[in-house]
Amino acid sequence: PFAFEARVEVKPKLDPKDYAGIALKKPDTQVDEAKVTEQLDKMRENQSRLEPITDRDVAQMGDFAVIDYLATSDDKEFPGNKAENINVEVAAGELVHSNIAALDGVKVGGAKDVDYVFPADYRDEAMRGKTARFSITLKELKRKIVPELNDELAKDVGMGVSTLDELKAKIRTDLERANKQKAEGEEREALVGSLVEK
């Protein structure tokens, strides 16, 4: 036979009093046009694609590049110090987030050495705050093609609609439903908070 004793929390039995007249603020669940546009822009970004750049061979800000790199810190290798055929953006930002502004002006087939100080919160503790030299070879240039806001995009996003107007209506409905659920939760919390105070 096996016996055990458990201690568990139970909800207290409450006898609510003086709850009539508690003031509750009704949150607005309406969705404005800006929120719909914001969602459409995200969808366009998600449907974007990279295409090779064929009319030039020198990197510019805003391009995407296919690179190989080899890095050392204090003349030693470290985990993740080399990679081949990875996509990065020629843009300001952190190298660990695949942004390498230093590639601006580099020709396809060319190389560039970049010194980079790893952030203090970098996932690999051993590399936090350390400087590494990255020897980068630029192999290919690409540009991002963002689809136009039209019926074709509406069909491609996979939401069961066939026109842009239908997509906008569906987005608005979904956002309003999410706002309503959030508002009901906030209303419930406010009500419980007021009852607890009493």
Give the topology:
Layout: H1 33-46, E1 49-52, E2 64-72, E3 82-89, E4 111-117, E5 131-145, H2 151-156, H3 164-197
Antiparallel strand pairs: 1-5, 2-3, 2-5, 4-5
Helix pairs in contact: 1-3
Descriptive overview:
The chain has three helices and five strands; from the N terminus they run αβββββαα. α1 crosses α3. The longest helix is centred in the last third of the chain and has 34 residues, at 164-197. The chain is flat. The model has no long low-confidence stretch (mean pLDDT 91). By secondary structure, the protein is α+β, with helices and mostly antiparallel strands. Strands 1, 2, 3, 4 and 5 form a five-stranded antiparallel sheet that branches. The chain has helices at residues 33-46, 151-156, 164-197, and strands at 49-52, 64-72, 82-89, 111-117, 131-145.
